[in-house]
Amino acid sequence: MITLFLEYLKFEKRASEHTVKAYQTDLDQFQKYLLFQYECSTPETASPPMLRSWVVSLMEESLNPSSVNRKIASLRTYYGFLKRKKVISNDPSKILSALKTRKKLPAFVEEKSMEMLFEEAAFTDDFEGTRDRTIMELLYGSGIRLAEIISLEIKDLDLATRTIRVFGKRSKERIVPVSVSLTELLSRYLQLRAPSEDTDSLILTDSGKPAYPVFVQRVVKKYLSAVTTLSQKSPHVLRHTYATHLLNRGADLNAIKELLGHANLAATQIYTHNSIEKLKKTHQQAHPKA
């Protein structure tokens, strides 16, 4: 049934490969626990106490509460699927409650640091240097996700209207505007990018193959390391940076939601906390009675 569930996620829910892999990992881990602890080889016959027992074992391993919550969410989605398919009549995951977690503010790079990056970083004028700069400016200048930049194809660019077509989670399409300078950079990059009969992918590796997650992550880490001491130096940090800088400069929250491709406003509102923290800091520094 797990295989059927994963196919449902992939083909009907149009979940990303990363999401499907995460569900598979969680359910495989749960299945192994059932077999070892209860000699139960079929998760669909597991009882509520068995599910609770697995969650307790995860907590005893000092697993991060947010990671435990993700695994609980995986069970809920899986058993919800089984119930809709009438494989089970009662959902054993109903007894599970999410753990309390500390709200973590999104990490972002300061504006001055980002200015320094693009003004002082040693981007060469050849294909590799222009490609690296394109990766950094695209992530910071459009707020797209790692999976989205990798899936971009040349046909998704419209340099005349200064927009890019992005396919986000569940293949949801959105149009994202880009700046004049980024449009010019993309144009230069396309001139240097060797034509390939094998792929239409926009971002290519040094050997002309489509870029892959670790490749983009390495590029981002290399350049961010020169301007920030943040422990996280990932493509997602540039997405957080994009959203935070827009909000700090007065952009409408609903507009940011659309640009990021968020399904609801709640996901975007977390960036307001960073702006509030900035206001508090300004108040403490400037107000005589702060």
Automatic annotation (TrEMBL):
Entry keywords, A to Z: Cell cycle, Cell division, Chromosome partition, Cytoplasm, DNA integration, DNA recombination, DNA-binding
Subcellular location: Cytoplasm
Cellular compartments per GO CC: cytoplasm
Keyword DNA-binding: yes
Pfam families (UniProt xref): Phage_int_SAM_1, Phage_integrase
UniProt cross-references to InterPro entries, sorted A to Z: CB (IPR044068), DNA_brk_join_enz (IPR011010), Integrase-like_cat_sf (IPR013762), Integrase_catalytic (IPR002104), Integrase_recombinase_N (IPR010998), Integrase_SAM-like_N (IPR004107), Tyrosine_recombinase_XerC/XerD (IPR023009), Tyrosine_recombinase_XerCD (IPR050090)
Annotated Tyr recombinase domain residues: 104-284
GO molecular function, one term: DNA binding
Cell division among keywords: yes
Residues of the Core-binding (CB) domain: 1-83
UniProt-annotated catalytic positions: 145, 169, 236, 239, 262, 271 (o-(3'-phospho-dna)-tyrosine intermediate)
Primary subcellular site in the record, as a coarse category: cytoplasm
GO biological process: cell division; chromosome segregation; DNA transposition
Domain of life: Bacteria
Subunit structure: Forms a cyclic heterotetrameric complex composed of two molecules of XerC and two molecules of XerD.
PANTHER family: PHAGE INTEGRASE-RELATED, TYROSINE RECOMBINASE XERC
Family the UniProt entry places it in: Belongs to the 'phage' integrase family. XerC subfamily.
Biological role: Site-specific tyrosine recombinase, which acts by catalyzing the cutting and rejoining of the recombining DNA molecules. The XerC-XerD complex is essential to convert dimers of the bacterial chromosome into monomers to permit their segregation at cell division. It also contributes to the segregational stability of plasmids.
Protein name, entry field: Tyrosine recombinase XerC
Phylogenetic classification of the source organism: Bacteria, Pseudomonadati, Bacteroidota, Cytophagia, Cytophagales
Originating gene: xerC
